[in-house]
Amino acid sequence: MKENLPSGITLIPNGAFHQDNYGATYLIEGDELALVDPGTSYSVQRLLDWFKENSLSPSRLSSILLTHIHLDHAGATGHLVDELSDLDVYVHARGAPHLVDPSELLASVKDATGSRYSEYGTLKPVPEGRIIPLDGRTTLNLGLRELIALPTPGHAPHHLVYQDLETGSVFTGDSAGLYLGGELIPTTTPPSFDLKKNLTSLEKIKKLSPSALLYSHFGPGVEPIKLVDEYGRILQDWVELIANFTRNYDEKEVVDKVLSKKRDWLGNSFTEEELVMNVKGVQRYLSWKGN
Ligand SMILES: [Zn+2]
Prior knowledge:
CATH class: Alpha Beta
Radius of gyration: 18 Å
Strand content: 15-25%
CATH topology: Metallo-beta-lactamase, Chain A
Bound molecules: zinc ion
Protein backbone atom coordinates (compact mmCIF):
# COMPACT_ATOMS: atom_id res chain seq x y z
CA MET A 1 0.00 0.00 0.00
CA LYS A 2 2.72 2.40 1.04
CA GLU A 3 4.53 2.20 -2.32
CA ASN A 4 1.60 3.76 -4.21
CA LEU A 5 1.14 6.71 -1.89
CA PRO A 6 2.25 10.15 -3.11
CA SER A 7 5.09 11.79 -1.23
CA GLY A 8 4.14 13.48 2.03
CA ILE A 9 0.88 11.55 2.29
CA THR A 10 0.40 8.63 4.67
CA LEU A 11 -2.52 6.24 5.01
CA ILE A 12 -3.63 5.51 8.57
CA PRO A 13 -6.12 2.61 8.74
CA ASN A 14 -8.80 4.00 11.09
CA GLY A 15 -10.40 0.66 11.99
CA ALA A 16 -13.95 1.64 10.96
CA PHE A 17 -16.40 -1.23 11.56
CA HIS A 18 -13.61 -3.30 13.13
CA GLN A 19 -12.07 -3.82 9.71
CA ASP A 20 -8.39 -3.20 9.06
CA ASN A 21 -8.80 -2.41 5.39
CA TYR A 22 -12.02 -0.48 5.20
CA GLY A 23 -11.56 3.04 6.57
CA ALA A 24 -8.57 5.10 5.43
CA THR A 25 -7.60 8.35 7.09
CA TYR A 26 -4.90 10.25 5.25
CA LEU A 27 -2.23 12.36 6.91
CA ILE A 28 -0.85 15.20 4.81
CA GLU A 29 2.55 16.34 5.96
CA GLY A 30 3.90 19.75 5.12
CA ASP A 31 5.10 22.35 7.57
CA GLU A 32 1.67 21.73 9.09
CA LEU A 33 -0.15 18.42 9.47
CA ALA A 34 -3.67 17.75 8.27
CA LEU A 35 -5.97 14.75 8.40
CA VAL A 36 -8.46 13.85 5.69
CA ASP A 37 -11.57 12.02 6.98
CA PRO A 38 -10.64 10.90 10.50
CA GLY A 39 -13.25 8.09 10.60
CA THR A 40 -15.82 7.17 13.23
CA SER A 41 -15.76 8.28 16.85
CA TYR A 42 -14.25 4.86 17.61
CA SER A 43 -11.22 5.80 15.50
CA VAL A 44 -10.06 8.61 17.80
CA GLN A 45 -7.93 6.48 20.10
CA ARG A 46 -6.55 4.52 17.18
CA LEU A 47 -5.39 7.73 15.48
CA LEU A 48 -3.84 9.12 18.64
CA ASP A 49 -2.05 5.80 19.22
CA TRP A 50 -0.76 5.89 15.65
CA PHE A 51 0.74 9.34 16.24
CA LYS A 52 2.43 8.07 19.37
CA GLU A 53 3.82 4.97 17.65
CA ASN A 54 5.21 7.16 14.87
CA SER A 55 6.72 9.69 17.27
CA LEU A 56 4.60 12.54 15.93
CA SER A 57 2.93 14.95 18.27
CA PRO A 58 -0.81 15.21 17.48
CA SER A 59 -0.57 18.83 18.64
CA ARG A 60 1.13 19.51 15.28
CA LEU A 61 -2.17 18.83 13.54
CA SER A 62 -3.66 22.06 12.29
CA SER A 63 -6.62 20.90 10.23
CA ILE A 64 -9.16 18.24 9.46
CA LEU A 65 -10.44 18.06 5.89
CA LEU A 66 -13.80 16.33 5.57
CA THR A 67 -14.97 14.98 2.22
CA HIS A 68 -18.46 14.64 3.71
CA ILE A 69 -20.14 14.25 7.06
CA HIS A 70 -21.19 10.58 7.00
CA LEU A 71 -20.11 9.18 10.35
CA ASP A 72 -17.54 6.73 8.98
CA HIS A 73 -15.70 9.78 7.61
CA ALA A 74 -16.45 12.60 10.06
CA GLY A 75 -17.53 10.95 13.34
CA ALA A 76 -14.16 11.46 15.03
CA THR A 77 -14.05 15.21 14.29
CA GLY A 78 -15.67 16.63 17.45
CA HIS A 79 -13.60 14.40 19.73
CA LEU A 80 -10.37 15.42 18.01
CA VAL A 81 -11.27 19.12 18.16
CA ASP A 82 -11.91 18.69 21.88
CA GLU A 83 -8.65 16.87 22.38
CA LEU A 84 -6.46 19.18 20.26
CA SER A 85 -7.41 22.78 20.75
CA ASP A 86 -6.41 24.60 17.56
CA LEU A 87 -7.85 22.45 14.81
CA ASP A 88 -9.62 23.98 11.81
CA VAL A 89 -12.29 21.81 10.25
CA TYR A 90 -12.91 22.19 6.51
CA VAL A 91 -16.31 20.95 5.34
CA HIS A 92 -18.88 21.76 2.68
CA ALA A 93 -21.13 24.65 3.76
CA ARG A 94 -24.18 22.34 3.59
CA GLY A 95 -22.55 19.91 5.99
CA ALA A 96 -21.31 22.53 8.47
CA PRO A 97 -24.57 23.04 10.45
CA HIS A 98 -24.76 19.27 11.05
CA LEU A 99 -21.37 19.29 12.73
CA VAL A 100 -22.45 22.12 15.04
CA ASP A 101 -25.72 20.34 15.88
CA PRO A 102 -25.46 16.68 14.89
CA SER A 103 -28.97 15.66 16.08
CA GLU A 104 -30.55 15.56 12.61
CA LEU A 105 -27.55 13.76 11.14
CA LEU A 106 -27.57 11.12 13.88
CA ALA A 107 -31.32 10.56 13.36
CA SER A 108 -30.74 10.11 9.64
CA VAL A 109 -27.91 7.61 10.24
CA LYS A 110 -30.19 5.68 12.60
CA ASP A 111 -32.87 5.60 9.95
CA ALA A 112 -30.47 4.42 7.24
CA THR A 113 -28.51 1.84 9.22
CA GLY A 114 -31.12 0.29 11.55
CA SER A 115 -29.56 -2.42 13.71
CA ARG A 116 -26.04 -1.42 12.62
CA TYR A 117 -26.44 2.09 14.07
CA SER A 118 -24.19 1.51 17.08
CA GLU A 119 -21.29 0.53 14.78
CA TYR A 120 -21.31 4.08 13.40
CA GLY A 121 -20.45 5.58 16.76
CA THR A 122 -21.47 9.16 17.39
CA LEU A 123 -20.49 12.73 16.57
CA LYS A 124 -19.63 15.24 19.24
CA PRO A 125 -20.77 18.77 18.32
CA VAL A 126 -18.00 20.86 16.77
CA PRO A 127 -17.81 24.51 17.92
CA GLU A 128 -18.89 26.76 15.05
CA GLY A 129 -15.75 28.87 15.41
CA ARG A 130 -13.56 25.89 14.44
CA ILE A 131 -15.38 25.24 11.18
CA ILE A 132 -14.39 26.65 7.81
CA PRO A 133 -17.39 26.12 5.51
CA LEU A 134 -16.56 25.69 1.84
CA ASP A 135 -18.85 26.49 -1.03
CA GLY A 136 -17.64 26.21 -4.61
CA ARG A 137 -14.10 25.50 -5.74
CA THR A 138 -11.69 26.83 -3.13
CA THR A 139 -7.91 26.87 -2.75
CA LEU A 140 -6.71 25.97 0.74
CA ASN A 141 -3.32 26.90 2.09
CA LEU A 142 -2.10 24.46 4.69
CA GLY A 143 1.16 26.13 5.53
CA LEU A 144 3.16 25.85 2.33
CA ARG A 145 1.05 23.07 0.90
CA GLU A 146 -1.90 24.01 -1.29
CA LEU A 147 -5.00 21.99 -1.94
CA ILE A 148 -8.11 22.56 -3.97
CA ALA A 149 -11.52 21.70 -2.52
CA LEU A 150 -14.08 20.88 -5.19
CA PRO A 151 -17.79 20.14 -4.65
CA THR A 152 -18.69 16.68 -6.01
CA PRO A 153 -22.35 16.03 -5.12
CA GLY A 154 -23.97 12.69 -5.85
CA HIS A 155 -22.99 10.29 -3.08
CA ALA A 156 -24.16 13.12 -0.81
CA PRO A 157 -25.17 16.69 -1.72
CA HIS A 158 -22.45 18.13 0.51
CA HIS A 159 -19.57 16.01 -0.82
CA LEU A 160 -16.16 17.54 -1.62
CA VAL A 161 -12.99 16.08 -3.04
CA TYR A 162 -9.60 17.62 -2.32
CA GLN A 163 -6.66 17.73 -4.70
CA ASP A 164 -3.17 18.07 -3.32
CA LEU A 165 -1.45 20.45 -5.76
CA GLU A 166 2.03 19.23 -4.89
CA THR A 167 1.41 15.65 -6.02
CA GLY A 168 -1.79 15.97 -8.08
CA SER A 169 -3.46 13.23 -6.06
CA VAL A 170 -7.15 13.49 -5.23
CA PHE A 171 -8.84 12.46 -1.99
CA THR A 172 -12.07 11.04 -3.35
CA GLY A 173 -14.05 10.27 -0.18
CA ASP A 174 -17.03 8.28 -1.48
CA SER A 175 -17.47 10.20 -4.78
CA ALA A 176 -15.62 7.65 -6.89
CA GLY A 177 -16.89 4.52 -5.13
CA LEU A 178 -15.35 1.99 -2.82
CA TYR A 179 -12.08 0.42 -3.93
CA LEU A 180 -11.78 -2.69 -1.83
CA GLY A 181 -9.20 -5.35 -2.53
CA GLY A 182 -8.65 -3.83 -5.98
CA GLU A 183 -12.36 -3.98 -6.84
CA LEU A 184 -14.69 -1.01 -7.40
CA ILE A 185 -18.03 -1.27 -5.59
CA PRO A 186 -20.84 1.30 -5.74
CA THR A 187 -21.65 3.37 -2.69
CA THR A 188 -25.20 4.66 -2.94
CA THR A 189 -26.10 5.22 0.68
CA PRO A 190 -29.43 6.81 1.66
CA PRO A 191 -30.80 9.40 2.11
CA SER A 192 -29.42 11.59 -0.69
CA PHE A 193 -27.66 9.49 -3.34
CA ASP A 194 -28.22 11.03 -6.80
CA LEU A 195 -26.94 9.13 -9.84
CA LYS A 196 -26.99 12.04 -12.26
CA LYS A 197 -25.07 14.33 -9.93
CA ASN A 198 -22.58 11.59 -9.09
CA LEU A 199 -21.86 11.02 -12.80
CA THR A 200 -21.33 14.76 -13.34
CA SER A 201 -18.96 14.79 -10.37
CA LEU A 202 -16.94 11.95 -11.89
CA GLU A 203 -16.38 14.13 -14.96
CA LYS A 204 -15.23 16.96 -12.66
CA ILE A 205 -12.75 14.61 -11.01
CA LYS A 206 -11.38 13.58 -14.42
CA LYS A 207 -10.87 17.24 -15.34
CA LEU A 208 -8.50 17.57 -12.38
CA SER A 209 -6.17 15.12 -14.22
CA PRO A 210 -5.44 13.33 -10.97
CA SER A 211 -2.12 11.54 -10.59
CA ALA A 212 -3.71 9.09 -8.13
CA LEU A 213 -7.05 8.57 -6.43
CA LEU A 214 -6.88 8.24 -2.67
CA TYR A 215 -10.01 6.36 -1.65
CA SER A 216 -11.45 6.56 1.85
CA HIS A 217 -12.36 2.89 1.32
CA PHE A 218 -9.57 1.87 0.81
CA GLY A 219 -6.20 3.18 -0.32
CA PRO A 220 -4.62 4.53 -3.50
CA GLY A 221 -5.72 3.76 -7.06
CA VAL A 222 -3.03 4.43 -9.61
CA GLU A 223 -4.95 4.52 -12.91
CA PRO A 224 -7.29 7.39 -12.11
CA ILE A 225 -9.04 7.98 -15.43
CA LYS A 226 -9.62 4.28 -16.03
CA LEU A 227 -10.96 3.85 -12.50
CA VAL A 228 -13.27 6.87 -12.72
CA ASP A 229 -14.68 5.70 -16.08
CA GLU A 230 -15.15 2.20 -14.77
CA TYR A 231 -16.94 3.50 -11.69
CA GLY A 232 -19.34 5.52 -13.86
CA ARG A 233 -20.29 2.33 -15.72
CA ILE A 234 -20.64 0.30 -12.53
CA LEU A 235 -22.84 2.96 -10.95
CA GLN A 236 -25.16 3.14 -13.97
CA ASP A 237 -25.45 -0.66 -14.20
CA TRP A 238 -26.17 -0.86 -10.48
CA VAL A 239 -28.97 1.69 -10.61
CA GLU A 240 -30.44 0.03 -13.71
CA LEU A 241 -30.35 -3.39 -12.06
CA ILE A 242 -32.23 -2.14 -9.02
CA ALA A 243 -34.70 -0.17 -11.13
CA ASN A 244 -35.55 -3.36 -13.07
CA PHE A 245 -35.93 -5.49 -9.96
CA THR A 246 -37.95 -2.79 -8.19
CA ARG A 247 -40.43 -2.65 -11.08
CA ASN A 248 -40.99 -6.41 -10.96
CA TYR A 249 -40.59 -7.61 -7.37
CA ASP A 250 -41.53 -6.71 -3.82
CA GLU A 251 -39.01 -5.29 -1.35
CA LYS A 252 -37.75 -8.59 0.05
CA GLU A 253 -37.51 -10.21 -3.37
CA VAL A 254 -35.46 -7.26 -4.67
CA VAL A 255 -32.93 -7.73 -1.88
CA ASP A 256 -32.76 -11.50 -2.51
CA LYS A 257 -32.29 -10.99 -6.24
CA VAL A 258 -29.55 -8.40 -5.74
CA LEU A 259 -27.79 -10.59 -3.21
CA SER A 260 -27.81 -13.59 -5.52
CA LYS A 261 -26.45 -11.48 -8.37
CA LYS A 262 -23.82 -9.50 -6.47
CA ARG A 263 -22.67 -11.99 -3.85
CA ASP A 264 -19.14 -11.73 -5.26
CA TRP A 265 -18.94 -8.17 -3.90
CA LEU A 266 -19.31 -9.45 -0.36
CA GLY A 267 -16.17 -10.09 1.63
CA ASN A 268 -13.28 -7.65 1.18
CA SER A 269 -14.74 -5.65 4.10
CA PHE A 270 -18.07 -5.16 2.28
CA THR A 271 -20.99 -6.68 4.14
CA GLU A 272 -24.47 -7.85 3.22
CA GLU A 273 -25.97 -5.11 5.41
CA GLU A 274 -24.06 -2.50 3.49
CA LEU A 275 -25.22 -3.92 0.17
CA VAL A 276 -28.83 -3.78 1.37
CA MET A 277 -28.33 -0.18 2.51
CA ASN A 278 -27.00 0.71 -0.94
CA VAL A 279 -30.10 -0.87 -2.54
CA LYS A 280 -32.26 1.38 -0.35
CA GLY A 281 -30.28 4.47 -1.36
CA VAL A 282 -30.93 3.73 -5.04
CA GLN A 283 -34.62 3.03 -4.45
CA ARG A 284 -34.95 6.32 -2.67
CA TYR A 285 -33.32 8.09 -5.62
CA LEU A 286 -35.60 6.28 -8.08
CA SER A 287 -38.70 7.22 -6.11
CA TRP A 288 -37.85 10.93 -6.28
CA LYS A 289 -37.27 10.61 -9.99
CA GLY A 290 -40.65 8.93 -10.39
CA ASN A 291 -39.12 5.85 -12.04
ZN1 LIG B 1 -20.52 8.29 2.63
